[in-house]
């Protein structure tokens, strides 16, 4: 019954910089898993959907911001697998901006119902009274945490690496909550280093990751967060556009663009040992490009091609 997840392609990126520095970069195209439910968000939802079915739940409820890949994925997944979906959205002001927001209008077209709340209220979303209140409004539901990370999500992300990936020296991933990289660490082998590029300021995800795995063959860097979550500048956008021109691979500005930028910078700094093979997981997120381009235009910055 489930979307085929074994067909992901590893794409060699043949750029001159790699031959000069004697490293190989291969991108795992998780962004191509599904046209609407891209990358790690599909992996994270897979076992949650099976669990929701097992518990006979008919509604999925989750949280997110106006550009959230997770919101878009839950909406699309709900449509595909016959669940009602409810999105608790951060920011009351968005209530009459749904049609001009690419992510929210996509989620709405999949049938998602929205409940807009203030940033103050949103901060309390993990408290018991909050979910009790939601139950009194919406009845019974299967709750997916913000970003979708829980034990089922980590199990799904452990399936990203396959037996064809065992010889890579480095496995790279963008890091938000840390759920995806926790899965990658679990299925990596001890000769591999799993390298996480934080999309947020800080590397606090470590303590969360350690709840899911005892392995220590990983490192999280926040040197390439560009100031914090969702922050971008012209240098990043131009790098992403240049990368797309040379390779045809689109990157997203929140996660994968920053990771690939970081990998290039580390290569230039000689971080990777000679003849290293690097597998970078393209976790998807391309649905966010339209929304980001609308913001970039307002700020007179270059847009993503
Ligand atoms: C959500 C997301 C991430 C971060 O995943 P976590 O499991 O929260 O660390 C990385 N890349 C993309 C494209 C995402 O949408």
Give an overview of the whole structure:
It is a single chain. This protein has 305 residues and is α/β, with parallel strands linked by helices. It folds into two domains: 168 residues, Rossmann fold (3-Layer(aba) Sandwich); 110 residues, Rossmann fold. The protein has twelve helices and ten strands. A six-stranded mixed beta sheet has the order 1-2-10-7-8-9, sandwiched between helices. It has a four-stranded parallel beta sheet with strand order 5-4-3-6. Helix 2 crosses helix 3, helix 3 runs parallel beside helix 4 and helix 10 crosses helix 11. The two termini are 35 Å apart. The site of pyridoxal-5'-phosphate has 20 residues, from helix 2, strand 7 and helix 8.
Count of helical regions: 12
Termini separation comes to 35 Å
Per CATH, the architecture of the largest domain is 3-Layer(aba) Sandwich
Would you tell me the overall average pLDDT? 95
Report the structural category.
alpha/beta
- CATH class division of the largest domain: Alpha Beta
Give the radius of gyration: 19 Å
Return the domain count: 2
Beta-strand share of residues: 15-25%
The name of the CATH topology of the largest domain is Rossmann fold
Morphology call: globular
For this entry, give a set of tags.
six-stranded mixed β-sheet, binds pyridoxal-5'-phosphate, globular, single chain, 2 domains, alpha/beta, 305 residues, Rossmann fold
């Amino acid at each position: 019954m489930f979307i085929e997840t074994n067909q992901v392609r590893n794409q060699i990126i043949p750029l001159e910089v790699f031959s000069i520095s004697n490293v190989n970069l291969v991108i795992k195209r998780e962004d191509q898993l599904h046209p609407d439910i891209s990358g790690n968000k599909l992996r994270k939802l897979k076992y949650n959907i099976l669990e929701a079915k097992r518990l006979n739940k008919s509604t999925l409820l989750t949280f997110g911001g106006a550009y959230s890949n997770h919101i878009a994925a839950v909406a699309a997944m709900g449509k595909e697998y016959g669940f009602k979906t409810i999105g608790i959205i951060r920011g009351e002001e968005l209530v009459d901006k749904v049609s001009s927001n690419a992510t929210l209008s996509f989620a709405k077209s999949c049938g998602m119902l929205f409940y807009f709340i203030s940033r103050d209220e949103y901060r309390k979303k993990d408290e018991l009274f909050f979910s009790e209140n939601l139950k009194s409004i919406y009845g019974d539901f299967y709750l997916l945490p913000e970003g979708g990370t829980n034990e089922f999500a980590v199990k799904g992300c452990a399936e990203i690496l396959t037996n064809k990936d065992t010889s890579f020296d480095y496995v790279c991933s963008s890091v938000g909550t840390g759920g995806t990289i926790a899965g990658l660490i679990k299925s990596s082998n001890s000769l591999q280093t799993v390298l996480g590029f934080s999309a947020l300021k800080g590397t606090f995800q470590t303590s969360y990751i350690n709840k899911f795995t005892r392995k220590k063959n990983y490192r999280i860097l926040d040197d390439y967060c560009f100031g914090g979550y969702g922050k971008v500048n012209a240098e990043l956008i131009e790098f992403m556009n240049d990368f797309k021109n040379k390779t045809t691979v689109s990157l997203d500005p929140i996660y994968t663009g920053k990771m690939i930028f970081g990998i290039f910078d580390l290569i230039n700094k000689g971080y990777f040992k000679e003849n290293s093979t690097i597998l970078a997981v393209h976790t998807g997120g391309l649905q966010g490009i339209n929304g980001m381009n609308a913001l970039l235009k307002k700020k007179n910055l270059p847009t993503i091609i």
